[in-house]
Design goal:
Number of domains: 1
Organism: Halobacillus seohaensis
Largest sheet: none
Order of helices and strands: HHHHHHHHHH
Number of helices: 10
InterPro entries: DUF624
Radius of gyration: 18 Å
Strand content: under 5%
Keywords: Membrane, Transmembrane, Transmembrane helix
Shape: globular
Structural class: mainly alpha
Protein name: YesL family protein
Pfam families: DUF624
């Protein structure tokens, strides 16, 4: 990471990160406005919620996953001290370069999340213990999904290999899994009470912090492999 000395260097660092996080998150949010509308409509309606499943099944792989992969690609560059002349141009470039992989991956993840939601809703109404088990499983899936996005932008792998390695990272590095889950939960909680956090910071903060934790684990794993 670059060194910033003195009060002016510290102010510059804060301003730089504020610009990075807010601009890229705003781009991510704009792309996901259709997803946000569907989710918001789902949350404020008590009946007929199943009708919102089809739009989400289409919108998640089409918009959410490609937009999120581009966000993680930007976070990866920041962790590697790579500067961007234009945040907009770089974000769009990553959106285009990763679109096919993130779209196909998004289809698979949407299927997995659909299965989890159906199972959770069924067991939540019939068995408290199984509801708890599926809640924990859901948290693990969130962390695994986040690791998967990090692997899309950091590794040259097949989709199958990324799924395997993101699963290994989730269960094999429990400390990182717990920290990631806690941080993501905290950011989501804050975003649920302060709407501007969703627009300007939530996604980019999750991507940046999660990739930082992932990248540290990646470096440790590589070092351990070299010491064998």
């Amino acid at each position: 990471m670059q060194n910033y000395n003195g009060i002016f260097g510290f102010i510059y660092l804060l301003a730089s990160w504020f610009m990075r996080l807010s601009v890229t998150n705003f781009l991510w949010f704009v792309l996901n406005i259709p997803v946000t509308i569907v989710v918001w409509t789902y949350l404020i309606n008590d009946e007929g919620t199943h009708i919102y499943a089809l739009p989400l099944v289409v919108l998640l792989p089409l918009l959410f996953y490609p937009a999120s992969a581009a966000l993680f690609a930007m976070a990866r560059d920041w962790m590697r001290d790579e500067e961007h002349d234009s945040l907009l141009k770089m974000y769009v470039a990553y959106l285009r370069s990763n679109y096919r992989t993130s779209f196909v991956s998004g289809l698979i993840w949407t299927l997995l999340w659909s299965i989890w939601i159906l199972d959770f809703r069924f067991f939540a109404e019939n068995n408290d213990l199984l509801a708890t088990v599926f809640s924990i499983l859901g948290i693990l899936l969130v962390v695994m999904n986040i690791h998967f996005l990090s692997m899309i932008v950091h590794y040259e792998m097949t989709i199958r290999e990324r799924f395997f390695n993101s699963f290994y990272m989730t269960v094999g590095r429990p400390g990182v899994t717990v920290i990631t889950a806690l941080i993501v939960s905290f950011i989501i909680y804050i975003a649920s009470t302060l709407w501007f956090v969703i627009i300007f910071f939530a996604g980019s903060l999750i991507a940046t912090i999660s990739f930082y934790l992932f990248y540290r684990s990646y470096l440790k794993i590589r070092q351990e492999a070299c010491n064998i």
